[in-house]
Amino acid sequence: MGTRDCKHISAMASPSIGEAGRTGEWRTSRPVIDHSRCIPVRKNKPSCFLCWLYCPEAVIKRDIPIQIDLTYCKGCGICAEECPSGAITMVAENDYVER
Amino acid sequence: METSVLNLPEREYLLPGNRTCAGCGLSIAYRYILKALEGNAIVAVPASCLTVLHGMYPTTSVLIPCVNVAFPSTAASASGLVAGLKALGRTDITVVGFAGDGGTHDIGIQALSGAAERGADFIYICYDNEAYMNTGTQRSSSTPLGAKTATTPVLGKQQHLKDMPRIMEAHSVSYIATACPSYPADLYDKMRKAKTKKGTRYIHISTPCPPGWIFPTKDTVKMGRLAVETGMVTLYEMEDGVFRLTGRSRSVAERGKLKPVGDYIKLQGRFAGISADNLKELQTWVNSRWAGYLKRA
After folding, report:
1. B27 and A56 in contact by Cβ < 8 A?
2. Using beta carbons and an 8 Å cutoff, which residues of A are at the interface with B?
3. Is A77 inside any structural domain?
4. Which of A78, A25, A56 has its CA nearest to residue B61?
5. In-domain check, residue A97
6. Cβ contacts of residue B174 below 8 Å, gap of 6+?
7. Distance from CA of A7 to the nearest CA of B (A)
8. Percent of chain B scoring above 70 in pLDDT
9. What residues of chain A lie within 8 A of the CB of B33, using their CB?
């Protein structure tokens, strides 16, 4: 960190996930996916992926089923808003119960 | 084949857990810009939200090298990087100057104009969130008529915005494009095209900003889409002076017409209480600008 190959200290930053900490803690509501309504799961082939396309944080993986990294998801709600099949809903963190 | 959601590269160069606000329009745009550059680029970034995104020493949330430069010197620094890489014989690396609307329209315009006149070989990207968002939403020369900012708090701004792509057009640069993160494939294609050109290339991206424009974070993509559909933003490209509407703007031009500007501004807190005169003036301005684009296309 901050050191070049030649061992000299430099003002060069190195890439790291979670540069601003666990940004998931900023969240007031979390995206909850109903995979049975998700289009790629229903068709069982790559399709739609609009949540992946528009996620500003790049925390959604373009897999079947899609996965959201909640450690860093800031809970903006764009995925739920853009989902054409209504598979993602935003649930307030206070009301969320683990199932 | 046109790029679609299924053939966009999956690899990310923007790491999660960065410092941008929730629902950041710049963040969406930057993801696709970095994908198009394939990590083989150096960016010069002045004071802006992008500096915030890149993060604080000793860590950064982006996988490509970035040089943090003084506010007015984005294009000058990028010219220097180009010269340095040329001297080292490393011609495969794309140099990108990346500034906000304040760093382009106001503070950085002199260096940009100079670099464009010299034809320095880099891509200049202006992400336009229509005010100085990083420092708390002060008016810039890109803020539209009627928008309230920290420095125009009562009546809103009383002047029209500056049309930066047209200023760049006057420099006869090889490629000019406008884009919006609500249409990532369009943005990606324009970046790929810009990468293949030589000389100064200019890309203008309109990025909705939830805290600055005052709308819910979930509506970022919707707001960008409405901006294009109402004509507040027009998607086009100019290759060696040849003008062409692209994406959604082209389909609006070919069939259908623009939505009223009211549809766009009523969803944003910054336009709350806009006077009827200003609204009418804004609509007239959008209509005449759109008519100009249709004539050229």
Report:
1. yes
2. 1-2, 11, 13-23, 26-27, 46-50, 52-59, 62, 69, 71-72, 74-78, 80-82, 90
3. yes
4. A56
5. no
6. B197, B198, B199, B200, B201, B239, B240
7. 15
8. 100
9. none
What CATH number should be reported for the domain holding residue A64? 3.30.70.20
Strands A67-68, A60-61: parallel, antiparallel or unpaired by DSSP?
A: antiparallel
Helix/strand/coil for B201? strand
CB of B9 less than 8 A from some CB of A: no
Q: Is residue A14 part of a domain?
A: no
Write out pLDDT tens, residues B258-289: 999 999 999 999 999 999 999 999 999 999 99
Task: Quote the minimal CA–CA distance from A75 to chain B in Å.
Answer: 7
Distance CA B246, CA B252 (A): 10
Residue span of the structural domain in which A35 resides: 23-92
CA pair distance B151, B92, nearest whole angstrom: 44
Neighbours of B117 (CB within 10 A): 12
Task: Note whether A20 contacts B18, CB cutoff 8 Å.
Answer: yes
Cα distance from B18 to chain A (closest Cα, Å)?
5
Q: How many domains does chain A divide into?
A: 1
Q: Domains (ranges, CATH) in chain B?
A: 25-296 (3.40.50.970)
CB contact under 8 A, B23 and A22: no
| Position A43 in a domain | yes
ipTM for the assembly: 0.92
